[in-house]
């Protein structure tokens, strides 16, 4: 039988984590857009 793990976090922690993940993704996309070895078609 598998047990569930409950992690105590506040809603604001989850919101902050989601926003930081979005910013990190955007920075990765921008870094690829600046890379001239990657064609943009």
Brief summary:
By secondary structure, the protein is mainly α. It has one helix spanning about 10-35.
Shape: elongated
Structure summary, number of beta strands? 0
What kind of sheet is the major sheet?
none
Estimated radius of gyration: 18 Å
Query: Taking all residues together, what is the mean pLDDT?
Result: 82
Class derived from helix and strand content: mainly alpha
Number of distinct helices: 1
Describe this structure in words.
This protein has 41 residues and is mainly alpha-helical. Helix content is 59%, strand content 0%. The chain has one helix at 11-34. The radius of gyration is 18 Å and the shape is elongated.
Describe the secondary-structure layout.
Blueprint: H1 11-34
Tags for this model:
41 residues; 1 helix; mainly alpha; single chain
């Amino acid at each position: 039988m598998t047990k569930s793990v409950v992690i105590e976090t506040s809603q604001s922690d989850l919101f902050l984590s989601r926003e930081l993940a979005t910013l990190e993704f955007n920075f990765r996309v921008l870094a690829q857009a600046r890379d001239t070895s990657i064609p943009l078609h």
